[in-house]
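Before a colleague's protein record goes any further, I have to sign it off. My question to you is simply how this chain folds and whether the tokens agree. I do not need a full report, just your reasoning and any doubts. This is what I was given:
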Amino acid sequence: MAEVELLDSEEQIAKVDRSGMLAVVGQLPEMVEQAERYSAGVDLPKAEAIRQILVLGMGGSAISGDIFSDLYLRKIKYPIVVNRSHSLPEFVDKGTLVFALSYSGNTEEVISAVKEAEKRDTRVICITSGGKLKEIAAGRNYPLFLIPTGYQPRSALPLLLIPLLSSLETMGIIPPAGAEIKEAALVLRKMKDEIGPGKPARNNTAKQLAKKMAGKIPVIFGVTGTTASAALRLKNQISENSKLTSVLNNFPELNHNEIVNLSNRSREEHNFVWLVFRDEADGERVKKGIEIIKSLLGKQMGGVNEIVSYGKSPIARALSLIFFGDYLSVYLAIQRGVDPTPVDIIGRLKKEIMR
């Protein structure tokens, strides 16, 4: 069966996607809507005397902090840091608002960092489905957003992101986000009709791009402060879902390094497929730089594939890029004959570390 036909065949997809990751990705619009119900009824600390915000997380949980940073770093007065480590930066003190995100509730690095945060008298808010983090929150009377179990951490992004944003809104740290979240759900529903499995490959841009990526190494470019989190999310989803290696960099930083090695390869010398995330909020100088780089590298890279955000609000546009990338990574896995769900080596690593 031809590759395009494979992505249109429910029978053939089911043989590869044995755990139903494609269906889980398609639940994103509903998850965005439902996540708001898990954001209510939690007593939150006052925003007084807060000087910075720290988000603790790893993998699929940490990406919510990256999205938050892209959305608000230039809009609020607080520094935002995403902490992927067992320990905390030295600046963390009682003026730091700490969000501890762990879908399972047992992420070793998050648990370690939360315990250190307690010693520094910080204000901690926990978002989890259970585990040790839930126990810590209950024992120390930390505000707790308890979200549903049963998902892979990378599939639970709205359940972690929406409570994070809603709590910040309630505390008066970010502007009201409810209307943006509602728009995001509508945008994602429309996108599902356009790039979901029910849309034939001949009219489905996500399926078409997955076909183009077959047998190639993805080179993913985002933009710092707008699409960097979506670019990182795609890289991680390609790692876990597609089981492939990819290259990641962001404008404008890549203008000072990555373009050199790419420009010195002829089209025949590489096996890359070039992806660039675009958003209307990209700065004018960044936009100009992207267009110049496209003209300079287009021939060597075999052309550029732009992934453009949809929607009016920043939250809707950010989640539109995430949604496209999630579908793309699963289509790529199915096309390769790889079940996107299992990540056995991560479980083996955790067991070995705990020994």
Notes: The longest helix spans residues 314-335. The two ends are 46 Å apart (CA to CA).
